[in-house]
Every structure is written in structure tokens, then in C-alpha cells.
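Need C-alpha cells for this chain, all 155 residues.
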Amino acid sequence: MKYEFQIFGKLNKKGYGRDYYLKLKKIIKENKLTNIRLMGHVSNPEIYLSKSYLQIRLARTNDPYGRDIIEALTMGVPSLATGTYEGIIKNNFNGYLLKTFSTDKIIFLLDRLSKNNHERNRLSKNCIKVKHLFDGTNQIELFEKAIKFAGNRIR
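Here are the C-alpha cells for all 155 residues:
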């Protein structure tokens, strides 16, 4: 399987992140990495997510959560992320969590998925099974429970 990577998000051409943006652009150009595209900010990320095989979020910190992870999950797109929090991604159920950043583990998992579409489909089906946990109604109920719990603790 030939990989194509699309990097989304605002990569500043000036100010904060400028050096990172320029370094990334230089690496892509010098190595003729035609399979990596800097997409920047897009208005309709769901269009790109719905066509994705996998979402990769490899922060160097314990950060396996966020709106992008939830959006991918609700579209049946598994995620590969670093961290230990299993509130959204359940390791080996609807995606993969790496406790720490490891290039070798990342390559192993990408290779595993590229050779086993059944595995990717299993992860995807499990994303769909739990997406109801992140809909608006459920979030309101969880928020109300949290408020009641906090109120009871204050008394």
C-alpha cells in the first residue's frame, strides 16, 4: 500500500510555528516526498476525514483526545495516537494508543494495517459502535451528571 499523508491545521508561515512550518516544508521538498501534503486549515474537515483510512495524532505528550479524534471516530475512522487516556480511543478496539512516541511502533502499526484491511475494518466498526457516546444528547446528560456530582460534593 502506498501511503499518502495529509497534514491539516494552521501551520503558521510567520510568528508561532514558523520555524517548524519552514523545516517541514524543506524536508518534504529536499526528499521529494510527493505523498505528503500540507493542507493547512480546511473549512470542511469531515470531507477529508470521511475519505481517510486512519487518523494519526502523534503528539510527544499524553494527548489522545480532542475534537479531531471524536470527529474521526464518529465517521468510522480509527485513530493512532500517543497517550494513555482511553476515554475516546480504546487501544486495539477502535484505534491504537502508544504510551510513548515510537517510530518503530508507528511503522509496525501502519504496516500491519496496510497488509490487513480486515483489521482496519474491525477498528472502524468499533468506532461506529461507540460514536453515540459523543453525540449532543449524551454530552448534555454527562454534563448534567457532572454538575450534580460537583454540587453534592460542595454541600
